[in-house]
Amino acid sequence: MPPPNTTSEMLERIEQDNVRFLRLQFSDVLGMPKNVAIPVKQAEKALTGGIGFDGSSIEGFVRIEESDMVLKPDLSTYTLLPWRPREYTVARFMCDVYKASSGKPFEGDPRHVLRVAMEDAARDGYIFNTGPELEFFLFRMVDGRPTTLFQDVG
Q1: By the number of CB atoms within 10 A of the CB, which of 72, 87, 118, 152 ranks highest?
Q2: For residue 77, what are the domain limits?
Q3: The whole model's pTM is what?
Q4: How far is it, in rounded angstroms, from Cα 46 to Cα 34?
C-alpha cells in the first residue's frame, strides 16, 4: 500500500495501523543511523512543523551554540517496524534535518547533500543513480554449530 500524500491522510493511516510510537530517523555525517522516538500523540506536530532536537549531540553536526535543529518526516518513507509486537506498533519515517533558526536545510544532512548532488548532476545532463549493496557471508557448520570458516572461497 503506497504511503498517503497529505498530512491528514497520513494521520489516518497511522491511526488505522494502531501505531503507538514513531521513530524519526536520520543519519549523521558518517552515515550512522540515528533516531528520535516520539509518542503517536505528537504525530501531527511532527508531520506539520517537525520535531526539534539537539544537533550538538550528534557527532559532526554543529557546535552547542547552533544546536537547535528540526526533523521533518518524509511521508513517502513511512513503514511499520516488523519486529515490534502488533499491540505496540512502531512506525518510522526517514527525516530531513533543518536548522531551527533559519528553517533552511542543514548542509551536513546526508539526504540534503545527496539531493544537491542529484540536482547538480541533472543540470549537467546526468542521471544520478544510487542503490544499496548487500553483502553476506556463508559460514561452515561443524557438528551442527556455526564456525568462522567460510563455506566458499568467493
Answers
A1: 72
A2: 7-128
A3: 0.75
A4: 16
